[in-house]
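User: Structure please.
Assistant: Input sequence and predicted structure:
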Amino acid sequence: MRDDAVQVLEQNWTGRSTVPSRSLYPHQWSWDSAFIAIGLRHVSVDRARTELESLLQAQWPDGRIPHIAFAPSVPRDAYFPGPDFWQARLANGTETSGIVQPPIHALAAWLTYQADPADSGFLERVYPGLVAWHDYLRDRRTLGPGGLVAIVHPWESGMDNSPAWDSPLARVTPAPAGSFTRRDTDHAADADRPTDLDYGRYVQLAATYRDHGYDDRETPHAFALEDPCFNALLICSEHALADIATTLGHDPARHRQYAAELTDALVERLFTAGMFRAHDLMSGDLVASDTVAGLIPLIVPGLPVADTLLATARGPRFRLGQVRLVPSYDLTAEDFDAGRYWRGPSWFNTAWLIHRGLVQLGKTESAEALRTDLLALAEATTFAEYLDPFTGEAHGARSFSWTAALALDLATAPII
């Protein structure tokens, strides 16, 4: 399995970064690269460092790390929305998207450093960019009164087609059906992918943001939510920045303080009925859907409601330890779909995050069961993008980079 995982990462390596999938995702994706670096550190620490540093080459002057850095060698129409849609070119010539993805990068950088602690030069190079990234989120994306960071597009959650976005997306008039051509369904089954209606809404939201210069204060956001996964990863990365700051001889206090403030706000604003739910800033309500995003805060150090949240994970909605990995959506929901993108299937990256939370909580038996399941399924599905939580049947792309990387990580060494 290790050899096969390494081969996947080799075949998807471009020389400076790793594509998630040669067919479906032929560019560099933001949180994918963070997960990939976590696995690459066991193959080549130099490549893991390069993975993260190449992503920071796409960082904007305002500090944001865009969710896609486009490869100039790939045909411009190979992926939609491509560079011609986003119209975002940096001074160094890099073309990017204009939206972001969950901020797990500082954690990835810290874990990469731990693979070779003798080299602190890497931390010195990436620390300023990571601080600027978090400053952007704190200063520009704190759109509500409670201090949590907001996403302004479903793609920014990393869980693009989640049922949690259905109600907020209903406010969005979709882009006309003939105004764009999807490329994702060229490489994956229609039944596995978002519907054309949802895709039209995604396109319209992105176009509105683009047409307002990607200005978070000037854009009339029709979609703005405080997502529990996004904020939980920001908290963990703030803790990682504190560790990096300490290693470099800087004062870590600002990072510890922000992590504590975010943790308090996360619990106060998003926790209800044993579960974290996204907060819709437009309606003022918590969304009604229970998704795996609401379980990701298990990774937050010192989470005061961890035991209650773990009970929910083990309960009928997610059946942790009874189904394959962790389903992305409430198993008891009427619209649960075991095969469609983020509307029920289990994903390897969310299972990795929850495994990390279980280890931190000292739930050794549950963590080992999830680890064993992840490794077996990664091999059995030839490193699928996601899978049916009941049957383990593969869906989406194969030879998927973060699946290979995270399996390699769990097969190689403890991650804490």
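The CA atoms of residues 274 and 311 lie 8 Å apart.
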